[in-house]
Design goal:
Distance between the termini: 20 Å
Helix content: 25-40%
Strand content: 5-15%
Structural class: alpha+beta
Low-confidence stretches: none
Number of strands: 7
Length: 187
C-alpha cells in the first residue's frame, strides 16, 4: 500500500499534506479522528457484527460519535505509535480473516477519486462557486449535506469538489459505491 492516490485525494479536497510530523489544527485533528474512527466502527459494527458498548451505551451508528477537543495538547509520540498500532491491527484482521486488503485498498482508492468531478473544458476561475453554479455547466447534482462546492486544479486538471459543513468531501449524485464483488467471488 502506498499513499499516492490518497495524497491526490487530499490535494483535490483542498487538504494540506504535511511535509513532516505535525499535530495540525484542531479542525484537522477532529476530521482525522472522525475519518479514522468512523471507518473502524463501520468495520466492527457491520463487518464483524459486533456492537461496541461504552459506559453501557451501545454504539450502533459509526457517524453518531461526537469529537470534543480536550485541553491536553496532541502528543507526537502517541500519534505515531497509535497510528502504527492501527495499521498493525488492520493487517492482523486482514490475515486472520483472509481479507484481500491490498487489492481492496486499490479499488477503494480509485473509487474515492471518483468523488471529484473532472471538468474537461473548464475555463472559469478556480475557487468556491456560488450555489447557482454548482452544476458547473455539466448537470452535476450534489447531496443536501454539501454546503459548498469549489473548483480546484491538480496537475493541470480541473475538478469540482463538494464538501459538508465539517470539510469532509461528499460524493456527487452520480457516484457509485466501490464494487468489491470480484474480490469476494475469488475467495
Amino acid at each position: 500500500m502506498t499513499g499516492e492516490k490518497i495524497q491526490k485525494f487530499m490535494q483535490l479536497g483542498g487538504q494540506s499534506v504535511a511535509k513532516s510530523l505535525s499535530t495540525g489544527s484542531v479542525t484537522q485533528r477532529q476530521l482525522g479522528a472522525r475519518l479514522l474512527l468512523s471507518e473502524v466502527l463501520e468495520y466492527v459494527i457491520h463487518g464483524l457484527g459486533i456492537t461496541p458498548t461504552v459506559n453501557g451505551v451501545k454504539i450502533t451508528d459509526a457517524d453518531a460519535v461526537d469529537y470534543a477537543v480536550t485541553d491536553t495538547p496532541p502528543d507526537k509520540t502517541e500519534m505515531l505509535d497509535g497510528l502504527a498500532d492501527v495499521a498493525y491491527t488492520m493487517y492482523w484482521n486482514a490475515l486472520a480473516f483472509g481479507i484481500p486488503l491490498e487489492e481492496a485498498f486499490q479499488l477503494v482508492c480509485d473509487n474515492n477519486l471518483e468523488k471529484f468531478v473532472k471538468l474537461s473544458n473548464w475555463t472559469n476561475p478556480i475557487g468556491e462557486l456560488s450555489p447557482d453554479t454548482w452544476h458547473c455547466g455539466a448537470d452535476i447534482k450534489w447531496p443536501e449535506a454539501v454546503v459548498r462546492v469549489e473548483v480546484v486544479r491538480v496537475n493541470k486538471e480541473y475538478f469540482a469538489v463538494g464538501k459538508d459543513s465539517s470539510g469532509k468531501v461528499r460524493k456527487p449524485a452520480h457516484y457509485r459505491q466501490v464494487d468489491l464483488s470480484q474480490l469476494l467471488a475469488a475467495n
